[in-house]
Design goal:
By secondary structure, this protein is mostly helical. It has one domain (about 1-245). The protein is built from ten helices and no strands. It is globular. The mean pLDDT is about 85.
Length: about 250
């Protein structure tokens, strides 16, 4: 049942990510945290999202902003280097709360937080904080979106470049949690990837076709409200777990 649940969540969230570029990862992380230990959920999420984001980047290869991606990698490398000296793992209640609070950054007024990934120093900061948050909470899509919300690129370039950056961030997350996940004995067998990988690709491909039918305005509006609703549910779930009202 756990494997079937993971596979279904893989396809559905890959489709959502194929359309919006981030909401699927947020949903998938919460779904995995329901059925797996935290470290195992991080690794499985990282593997699935690496396949989903990697395929999405391939589908939109000609739209990737390689300059932004290169600068992002510099910041990501610094974060990865610092994480070598840190060791921590959130409990499930706090994982849900942090997951739920991540989307709040997209509501910050622009005069308080005005970021643009097309600016070199912003792209470096993006790589650093997004990679770090991805390791702590498992997802960083809403924060990543803040850096791309005010760029002059269209929706295809935004989705393509974000997908490429997320492959890197998820790779760092997998490396960070792989040993604790193996030790927790909650990591699914490798065979599930033989089914999960093509499901992630199919979902992403279907989402990419749906994306082509949307306007830039619809893309930005739907993304903001969807991730905010998901975040509210996660915060409530975390609070219920802390108070013992949920299992």
């Amino acid at each position: 049942m756990t494997a079937a649940f993971i596979l279904l969540a893989t396809f559905v969230t890959a489709f959502i990510s194929g359309v919006f570029g981030m909401a699927g990862g947020l949903i998938l992380m919460g779904a995995l945290a329901l059925v797996l230990p935290v470290a195992s959920a991080m690794v499985v999420h990282g593997v699935i999202q690496s396949v989903s984001n990697g395929w999405r980047a391939i589908l939109h290869l000609k739209w990737i902003d390689w300059r932004v991606l290169g600068i992002y990698l510099a910041g990501s490398a610094v974060a990865a280097g610092l994480l070598v000296f840190a060791s921590f793992e959130l409990s499930k209640p706090w994982l849900f709360i942090v997951l739920g609070l991540v989307p709040a950054v997209i509501w910050l007024p622009k005069h308080i937080l005005h970021l643009d990934a097309s600016r070199p120093h912003h792209a470096v900061a993006c790589g650093f904080v997004v990679t770090g948050l991805n390791v702590i909470a498992g997802v960083s899509g809403p924060l990543l979106d803040v850096f791309f919300a005010d760029t002059q690129s269209d929706r295809r370039s935004i989705v393509a470049t974000k997908a490429a950056t997320q492959v890197v961030s998820h790779g760092v997350k997998i490396a960070y949690y792989i040993l604790p996940a193996i030790g927790a004995a909650g990591l699914p067998s490798a065979q599930w990837l033989l089914v999960a990988a093509p499901l992630a690709i199919l979902g992403t491909t279907a989402g990419a076709r749906f994306l082509a039918l949307m306007s830039d305005v619809q893309f930005r509006q739907w993304t903001k409200w969807i991730v905010s609703a998901i975040g509210a549910v996660y915060v409530l779930r975390g609070i219920l777990l802390l108070t013992g009202s949920a299992s």
